[in-house]
DNA sequence: CAAAAGTGGTAATCGACCTTGTCGGTTTCG
DNA sequence: CGAAACCGACAAGGTCGATTACCACTTTTG
């Protein structure tokens, strides 16, 4: 009875372990997705183009991702996750400041992350919309998290007497829409005004939404 | 020398003129597009499916539209045009009312049009995003028109002393984003609250944006 | 009533893309 | 140094959708 090799064998090649080279290829595919999804658009980007740009064989593509859609999802998670993290930590550090300063700092962190690269902005605001039910669900999940963040800011403002208590759920969605549309317009439209103007405008919007009425 | 028939020949078939039957087929294709784009989504809808649903042959499809994208564009123009018209005429009729009433009436007209049918909302807010450069340009054109409408409201408010004069271009984009995101969330999410709540929220947003600062 | 003119549906062609199997080259181990 | 294992590139199979060519049918006209 021959011994059955249950564990997958793995050797080093070119001085790198199998995991290292897998991670390498995955990262190159992510970069290719960033470039192609972010400039040519998701529908115009085939798996072959992605692999050519990343210098990865199509065979290896399927070793890393079940399909093209999953690469888009991974990119979107990375972008949105970083933006969310930046916004959250900015907010945490500004807890003792005024409402306007808290909003300005949080918005600035979010904006400078998502629009630090025009391709990020395009993927986050355009290419990820209306792709498939799975992607839509993913997007809704992130929007819901953002909505919770805004609601938390509102609750804190009520605690500190900067806003009157009421249901902020609709307001939060409206504010998210305002942020996204304005950043999208600004980023994809050539960034004709300084980023501080956009921050100032969104701060005005946020403060107005929380304090009026 | 034979006479050259410069005018296109056209006979009646089934008691209808060529134009009538063309218009008929075109309208049936528009309805099929509304149904399929609005429920299955644009990427999942092939020309064959459209033709089957509309009882139109693929040959006649190309007689009416250069391609699938142009049907989407025609639908989007119809939806957005109607919404825009409803909003504009509502605004015109409310010129002597207070700022809040003008905003509420205009927003209500816009919302009740775009979300009178969930498929309209989905096409207007989701399926039309990120399809191709041509569609994106089309979308930007409509957004720019909407922005002008909001700016006009702001200018009128300044005239009447309801708002302080400043540059409202960024504010207009932010407001449009707020409207779209909230209506989208509300319409696609099951409409769990009455439409008047959405109108009230967006009125609050509009008034706040124009009067604060 | 027969032939011509025009119309609309069917089906074939064409190409693109996704997916997987195979092969040659390379590296490590005995 | 030889053999075996392993990796990655190439390419073929298969599916699906877009586009167009052809033909059968309908209506009119002489």
Please tell me about this protein's structure.
2 copies of one chain form a homodimer. Chain A has 9 helices and no strands. Chain A is mainly alpha-helical. The first copy, chain A, has 2 domains: 53 residues, Arc Repressor Mutant, subunit A, CATH 1.10.10; 137 residues, Tetracycline Repressor, domain 2. In chain A, helix 7 crosses helix 8. Chain A is elongated and about 60 Å long. At the A-B interface, helix 7, helix 8 and helix 9 of A face helix 7, helix 8 and helix 9 of B. Chains A, B: GO terms for molecular function: DNA-binding transcription factor activity; transcription cis-regulatory region binding. Chains A, B: This is HTH tetR-type domain-containing protein. Chains A, B: It comes from Kutzneria albida DSM 43870. Chains A, B: Keywords: DNA-binding.
Offer a quick outline of the entry.
Chains A, B: Pfam families: TetR_C_24, TetR_N. The structure is a homodimer of 213-residue chains. Chain A has 213 residues and is mostly helical.
Topology at a glance:
Two copies of one chain form a homodimer.
Chain A: H1 18-39, H2 47-54, H3 58-64, H4 68-93, H5 99-114, H6 118-127, H7 133-159, H8 169-188, H9 195-211
Helix pairs in contact in A: 1-2, 1-4, 1-6, 4-5, 4-7, 5-9, 6-8, 7-8, 8-9
Chain A binds a DNA duplex (30 and 30 nucleotides) through helix 3.
CATH architecture call of the largest domain in chain A: Orthogonal Bundle
Say how many strands of chain A there are: 0
Low-confidence stretches of chain A: 1-7
Shape of chain A: elongated
Q: How do the helices and strands follow one another from N- to C-terminus of chain A?
A: HHHHHHHHH
Q: Please describe the biggest sheet of chain A, giving its number of strands, its sense, and whether it closes into a barrel.
A: none
- Kindly report how far apart the N and C termini of chain A lie: 81 Å
Overall mean pLDDT of chain A: 92
Q: Tell me the name of the CATH homologous superfamily of the largest domain in chain A.
A: Tetracycline Repressor, domain 2
- Which two protein chains have the largest interface (Cβ within 8 Å of the partner's Cβ), and how many residues from each? A-B, 41 and 41 residues
Share in helix of chain A:
over 70%
Number of helices of chain A: 9
Strand share of the residues of chain A? under 5%
Q: Evaluate the radius of gyration of chain A.
A: 21 Å
Name of the CATH class of the largest domain in chain A:
Mainly Alpha
Return the CATH topology of the largest domain in chain A: Tetracycline Repressor, domain 2
Regarding quaternary structure, what we see is homodimer
How many structural domains of chain A? 2
Structural class of chain A: mainly alpha
GO molecular function, one term (chains A, B): DNA-binding transcription factor activity
Pfam family, one (chains A, B): TetR_C_24
Protein name (chains A, B): HTH tetR-type domain-containing protein
Domain HTH tetR-type (chains A, B): 23-83
